[in-house]
Specification:
The protein is of the alpha+beta class and about 190 residues long. It is built from seven helices and six strands.
Length: about 190
């Protein structure tokens, strides 16, 4: 698989974490090793996110330097899926239940799309990886904790910098393949 604009990098998987969580460690490591020529970056799910427009050339992106862009969903943070998936994190972290209560009516941020300046994304990844190291290693449950940890870090440490929804992403799970007014279609 050769292409001038595409490279494959081997990543040694650490099974201390579920693959949905380990990807953040891989992203962070990649930016540490190869980020010196990267000004801005988007990290997306591999199989259900399609780039519709180039965010880096969009005037909206260019005028929002210092912002952290991420996907979202129409449902609030307080929903049955998140309550079920947050149980392990709630049991591990005393502040998690307070976070859930404080931000329960806020939009559920979706970790399938995140981007911004390389430095800001790297800082976010540092905080997210530290959270996973402390509270989500060897998670024995069927729930990976990636969405809960992502929302926890985004809302408690980066909330004033978050930009989500249009034009970042289409409506999650609406399969809006026809839309060309958003950067990413997420299902």
């Amino acid at each position: 698989h050769a292409h001038p604009l595409l490279q494959f990098k081997r990543v040694a998987y650490n099974n201390t974490y579920n693959p949905n969580v380990f990807r953040y460690f891989a992203y962070r490591h990649f930016l540490q090793q190869h980020g010196h020529n990267i000004a801005a970056v988007f990290l997306t799910d591999a199989t259900d996110v399609v780039m519709q427009l180039n965010p880096f050339t969009d005037p909206f992106f260019k005028t929002k330097t210092g912002k952290l862009f991420c996907g979202d969903e129409l449902k609030p943070l307080d929903n049955e899926w998140m309550r079920d998936h947050g149980k392990y994190l709630r049991d591990q972290n005393d502040r998690y239940a307070l976070f859930e209560e404080t931000y329960k009516q806020q939009a559920l941020l979706n970790c399938g799309v995140i981007g911004g300046s390389k430095q800001l994304v790297y800082e976010f990844l540092e905080a997210l990886c530290a959270f996973h190291r402390q509270y989500n290693q060897h998670n024995p449950t069927d729930f990976t904790g990636d969405m809960g940890a992502f929302n926890f870090i985004a809302r408690t440490q980066f909330n004033k910098l978050i930009v989500h929804g249009e034009p970042v992403n289409t409506v999650f799970k609406n399969y809006e393949t026809h839309r060309r007014d958003c950067w990413f279609q997420h299902k």
